[in-house]
């Protein structure tokens, strides 16, 4: 033990630095007894036990012949995988520690090959042996986990086959006497199996009711009943008080109240069920048959609780102002009893059907149970829809405002009505299993749609509150991120939209992969099996990589924006570069930075570029057919930013458009016209077409030219001097080149004189011409000279 402790000290000191390796190696060798003892947490017997457990599950799969057994075996495999994962998690730190110790010792040196090995070599051999055992155990566990995962896939295929077989099986109409025979004249073997089930259930009750255990048993049952009834009300009132007094007033409080009602119902029911189960099993475990029935009946209870909890939360008949969906008060009150009736019906009938399944009764008895369940569920759901439609028509007849209907609500209503009609027809023509499947999907669809609707509302309201500029959290985000109200609202909309889209996707997947009796673990497993399919596994996208990628993206964008602000506000203004060059450099830096951030994000995801060949191929085809203009404009934008034939602030003229360049983007350039409107010109046109850059030389001058027509009887010299003096005296007209007046045209309508002057910038030509024209007309009026009048049109 002493030498083992010294070995650990050696590793620690070696990690601290080279100077720590001066200790004698002879003091650090482990004893020979320790070198032969494994410190691995998983022994060979544990691996053999896991293998035997997996073999038993395989044998049970080969003997299973109904969906219920397959679901139970799938749960067993999920538990098996969880146990294997736990063992792997316990071995991984030990593997890393041993590898780190081996890295400290370094590779084999020449001194280690000597006939008499050094203590370092002994230590290395000991650690290598331990690591080899850990590697073997991890490899064996990985193989067991892979086999279990393959079995889950095979079970899914078998379940689909069984479902297709049962659904397409025609057994007999509910109107035929043979369908009701198991109720009035059951088979002897069915009676025997039922009696055996009753006997085993009675034995379990008798064990729990033994003398000495009765007081505790009664106490547990009464406590469970109190939690399920009074405890639920207390929990719901407590959560309601928290929502009212701690949640902000508005939509978030309303959605939180609905969620609190469902959570209180689920939690108290789960506690009550655990107490009842403990009261029955605290002395002896249940028999396999009763245990199987208890597991399946527990799922049915949760289904019924979800139906009542969700319906009570969404209808909210006691507090109509808390109601989330747009349902009128009379309609909500009218349909309120139906969810409870449906829950009680499912609890009783499905519970009895589970008895026929676990006891292995005959096919007529099983089909009878399915038919009765389908018939009553179809009638209850049909009555619910009929009652709701009847009340809506009555409300509309009174002249009150109708409910706000949406396309999605109408589509759901139509699908449900079609399903009800299809289930009833299937029962009448003899497809009992098909009718059972349809009715179960109706119930499952109600749970999924209501549950995800509630989650969607809570998520949307939470985003709106957290990122509201008026809330304390919104103000904190503004101060932390340095963004304004508009940006904060955009973040709220983006997050809310992304979250709701994700929830809708999960709802659609859950709607098709699950069913009545599907546990939460099975739902998560099947959902993530679809979302994490072969394509994502090839791309090597895992949650750890995804988190790193998100952090890299957010940090990268923040750094680029910070550096761009530093360039625009601090560095570039202190240089001798003109504003256009500064804007071009800032834009080019931002584009390159965002490209690098995207590459870093993909690298953080663990995506290998060899696995993106199909993306590159699809992109090349897209470029060839539809993206060539985008790529051409992108390349042209890079040319504009590097060669700078035009820059921000230049006055240009292209294709009849003349204005100032305000911004050069990656795809297009913004040109501001004289009326302050913006024209978006693709970058490729600025490269490929003839373009007039008025301010490219830096010394461009504007030309202010006026053309005036005078009568034939004027004194040309007088008018010439007047025009010349007016131009020369104007403050914006340059002395060099000097202004001049030219005799342009002589016609029967009059004499045309053209006066021209130069200004310092083309941008002030319009203003200068306007000022000159006002001044010329003023001087002509003072001199009594009039402009020529146009000849009348004949």
Automatic annotation (TrEMBL):
What does the UniProt keyword field contain?
Answer: Cell membrane, Coiled coil, Membrane, Signal, Transmembrane, Transmembrane helix
Query: According to Swiss-Prot or TrEMBL, what is its membrane topology?
Result: Multi-pass membrane protein
**Residue ranges constituting the DUF3772 domain according to the UniProt record:** 140-199
**Every Mechanosensitive ion channel MscS C-terminal domain range:** 710-787
| N-terminal signal peptide | 1-25
Chain segments annotated as coiled-coil in the UniProt record: 40-67
Single annotated GO MF? mechanosensitive monoatomic ion channel activity
Q: A single GO CC term, please? A: plasma membrane
Q: Which family does it belong to?
A: Belongs to the MscS (TC 1.A.23) family.
Report the protein name in the record: DUF3772 domain-containing protein
Task: State the species of origin.
Answer: Pseudomonas arsenicoxydans
Upper taxonomic lineage? Bacteria, Pseudomonadati, Pseudomonadota, Gammaproteobacteria, Pseudomonadales
């Amino acid at each position: 033990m002493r030498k083992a402790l010294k070995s650990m000290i050696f590793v620690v000191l070696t990690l601290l630095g080279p100077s720590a390796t001066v200790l004698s190696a002879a003091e650090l060798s482990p004893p020979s007894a320790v070198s032969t003892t494994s410190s691995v947490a998983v022994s060979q017997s544990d691996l053999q036990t896991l293998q035997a457990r997996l073999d038993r599950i395989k044998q049970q799969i080969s003997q299973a012949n109904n969906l219920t057994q397959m679901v139970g075996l799938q749960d067993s495999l999920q538990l098996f995988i969880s146990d294997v994962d736990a063992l792997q998690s316990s071995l991984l730190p030990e593997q890393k520690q041993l590898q780190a110790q081996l890295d400290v010792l370094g590779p084999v040196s020449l001194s280690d090959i000597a006939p008499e090995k050094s203590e370092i070599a002994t230590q290395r051999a000991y650690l290598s042996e331990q690591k080899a055992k850990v590697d073997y155990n991890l490899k064996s566990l990985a193989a067991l986990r892979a086999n279990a995962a393959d079995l889950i896939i095979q079970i899914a295929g078998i379940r689909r086959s069984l479902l297709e077989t049962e659904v397409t099986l025609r057994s007999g109409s509910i109107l035929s006497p043979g369908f009701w025979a198991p109720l009035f004249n059951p088979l002897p073997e069915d009676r025997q199996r039922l009696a055996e089930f009753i006997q085993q259930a009675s034995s379990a009750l008798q064990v729990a009711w033994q003398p000495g255990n009765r007081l505790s048993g009664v106490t547990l049952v009464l406590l469970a009943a109190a939690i399920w009834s009074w405890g639920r009300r207390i929990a719901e009132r407590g959560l309601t008080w928290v929502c009212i007094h701690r949640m902000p007033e508005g939509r978030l409080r309303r959605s939180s109240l609905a969620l609190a009602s469902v959570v209180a119902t689920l939690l108290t029911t789960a506690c009550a069920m655990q107490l009842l189960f403990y009261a029955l099993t605290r002395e002896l475990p249940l028999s396999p048959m009763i245990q199987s029935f208890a597991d399946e009946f527990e799922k049915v209870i949760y289904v019924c609780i979800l139906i009542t909890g969700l319906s009570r939360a969404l209808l909210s008949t006691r507090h109509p102002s808390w109601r989330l969906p747009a349902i009128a008060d009379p309609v909500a009150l009218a349909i309120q009893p139906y969810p409870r009736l449906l829950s009680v019906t499912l609890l009783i009938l499905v519970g009895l059907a589970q008895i026929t399944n676990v006891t292995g009764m005959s096919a007529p008895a099983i089909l009878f149970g399915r038919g009765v369940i389908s018939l009553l569920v179809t009638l209850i759901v049909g009555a619910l829809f009929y009652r709701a439609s009847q009340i809506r028509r009555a409300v509309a007849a009174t002249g009150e405002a109708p409910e706000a209907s949406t396309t999605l609500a109408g589509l759901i209503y139509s699908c449900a009505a079609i399903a009800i009609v299809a289930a009833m027809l299937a029962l009448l023509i003899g497809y009992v299993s098909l009718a059972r499947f349809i009715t179960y999907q109706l119930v499952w669809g109600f749970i999924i749609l209501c549950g995800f609707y509630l989650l969607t509302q809570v998520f949307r309201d939470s985003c709106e509150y957290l990122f509201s500029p008026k809330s304390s959290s919104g103000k904190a985000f503004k101060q932390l991120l340095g963004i304004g109200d508009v940006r904060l609202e955009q973040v709220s909309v983006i997050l809310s939209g992304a979250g709701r889209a994700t929830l809708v996707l999960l709802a659609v997947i859950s709607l098709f992969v699950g069913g009545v009796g599907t546990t939460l673990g099975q739902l998560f497993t099947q959902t993530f099996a679809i979302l994490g399919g072969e394509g994502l596994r090839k791309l090597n996208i895992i949650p750890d990589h995804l988190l790193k990628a998100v952090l890299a993206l957010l940090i990268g964008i923040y750094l680029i924006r910070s550096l761009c602000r530093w360039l625009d506000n601090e560095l570039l203004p202190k240089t001798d570069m003109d504003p256009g060059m500064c804007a071009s450099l800032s834009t080019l830096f931002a584009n390159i930075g965002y490209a690098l951030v995207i590459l870093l994000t993909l690298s953080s995801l663990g995506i290998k570029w060899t696995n993106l060949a199909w993306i590159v191929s699809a992109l090349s085809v897209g470029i060839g057919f539809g993206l060539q203009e985008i790529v051409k404009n992108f390349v042209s934008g890079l040319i504009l930013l590097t060669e700078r034939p035009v820059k921000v602030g230049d006055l240009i003229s292209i294709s009849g458009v003349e204005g100032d360049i305000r911004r050069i983007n990656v795809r297009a350039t913004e040109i501001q016209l004289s009326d302050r409107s913006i024209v978006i010109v693709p970058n490729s046109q600025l490269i490929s077409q003839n373009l007039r850059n008025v301010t490219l030389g830096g010394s461009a001058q504007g030309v202010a030219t006026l053309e005036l027509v005078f009568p034939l009887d004027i004194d040309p010299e007088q008018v010439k001097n007047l025009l010349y003096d007016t131009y020369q005296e104007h403050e914006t007209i340059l002395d060099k080149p000097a202004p001049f007046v030219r005799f342009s045209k002589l016609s029967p309508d009059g004499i045309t004189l053209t006066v021209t002057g130069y200004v310092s910038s083309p941008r002030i030509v319009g203003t200068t011409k306007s000022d000159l024209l006002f001044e010329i007309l003023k001087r002509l009026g003072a001199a009594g000279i009039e402009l020529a009048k146009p000849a009348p049109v004949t």
